Amino acid sequence: MVAWGATNARQPTQVVEQTEFRVDYSGGWGTFGGPVWKGFRNACGAYRGPALPFLVTACTARDGSHWAVQRWRRHQANFGLPPWKAGHGAWELRLSHWRGPVAKLETWLDWSYAGRWHHLFGRLTYRGLPVHGFSTTPTGDPLDRYGRVLYLDTLDSAYGAGWRRENGFVARRPDGTFCYGFVPHTSHTGERRPAGNGARYRLAVSGPGVTPDVLWEGAGLANFDAANPKHVALEAQMNDFQRSLMSASTPCDS
Predict the structure, then answer these.
(1) N or C, fewer C-beta in 10 Å, the chain?
(2) Which is nearest to 213 in space by CA: 124, 153, 119, 136?
(3) What's the rounded Cα separation, in Å, for the pair 60 and 228?
């Protein structure tokens, strides 16, 4: 595979498409009429960029830009279920090319509905500005190259031991925020699945444009205890913070 012609990412706009690579899966035959990859010499040196999750290999070119290949399983069955359609659990190789900072994924935890359910919220930004798309399908899949799905995994939950996929959701327009409640769900077969809150969570997302994919991971909270002053104070603090963070969109359920 030969990939070229893209660096970094554009900020969300409906005027031009998001940055993307030109790709030739024939090694150059389809675009250049021959196997150009055979004539390439390595122009990359030791990697000098930020630490990256899922890293396979990375390098820094003479112009100061970075290239990286990451490997992870974006598409999995939701709600801790085993794979049930083609592509679930497949490993993907993800190529990026950028200069400067990568996307920033900030995440906080609290509870919702008066402490009944565990809750997660946050925002996705790039160079200090929100990352978001402009439209989605009825099931929440982005319909443009600016949209980004965040994939949430839960550890040692009601689904069983180990990491399991909880769900996926988009960063919202216009502020790049998101929120998710760990509540029971109904699967594609009609099966009722329990709330998937766990001991730890990890949230992964493809970087905007051709920038690297990023990851947040953190410990889960204990069940809410209305008699615990620390829990009550944390919930009040997080509710106030959510309203401030999401003032341009829709606040989460508190």
Answers:
(1) N
(2) 124
(3) 50
